[in-house]
Design goal:
The protein has about 200 residues and is of the alpha/beta class. About 40% of the residues lie in helices and about 15% in strands. It has 7 helices and 5 strands.
């Protein structure tokens, strides 16, 4: 099933998505993308359904073809302070504010959003596999976050972040047991970690 190019035929709309919400370390990233109404790309899809090579190719294409795009992040310290859901909303709001062109409608991936922009919005469950602008945002958020985690991996190679990007894989959980948490780990996830680490 091919993705739809737009939700509204008349309003300037920005697709919005985040990456890194379910991770144990590092920031959460978000992106907002305004695509031309007639934009189409057969390869464009939910970032989770694409290979790293495909995502990188699409990232360059999106940045070149988008009317406007913006990427923002919220660090692990803020995540611990306000919780991951609110941090995700904060990152999305920051990304929207970073757009050079102001949208008239926001397409938000998921079922809820805390809107601080004053722009009308529509939440769309699994929106990254339904609308091109949301899929584009998911790709930018994912690629920028992966790039950041690869940089952190150079400093903390023991956690395998070049492979797991700090998701709660068996490799990552075992490394936390062996080496303890890094300064980049989310402390608010430590309670949940105790159960996740018992395998």
């Amino acid at each position: 099933m091919s993705l739809q190019s737009c939700f509204s035929e008349t309003l300037i709309e920005a697709g919005c998505d985040e990456a890194g919400r379910g991770c144990l370390a590092g920031p959460v990233y978000a992106a907002a993308v305004i695509l031309p109404k007639d934009y189409h790309n057969e390869l464009l899809n939910d970032s989770k359904k694409l290979t790293a090579k495909q995502r990188e190719k699409l990232k360059q294409e999106i940045e070149k073809q988008a009317i406007s795009w913006s990427v923002a992040s919220v660090d692990h310290i803020t995540i611990d302070r306000v919780n991951i859901l609110n941090a995700s909303f904060l990152a999305i709001n920051k990304a929207i504010s970073g757009l050079k062109n102001k949208p008239e409608l926001l397409l938000i991936d998921g079922n809820r959003f805390k809107n601080e922009t004053g722009i009308q919005y529509q939440c769309i469950i699994k929106g990254d596999s339904k609308y091109m602008s949301i899929a584009a945002a998911s790709i930018l958020a994912k690629t920028y976050r992966d790039e950041f985690m690869l940089q952190l991996h150079e400093e903390f190679p023991q956690y395998g972040w070049n492979r797991n990007k700090s998701y709660a894989t068996k490799e990552h959980r075992e490394a936390i047991i062996k080496f303890g948490q890094s300064p980049w780990h989310r402390k608010s996830f430590s309670v949940g970690l105790q159960t996740k680490l018992e395998f």
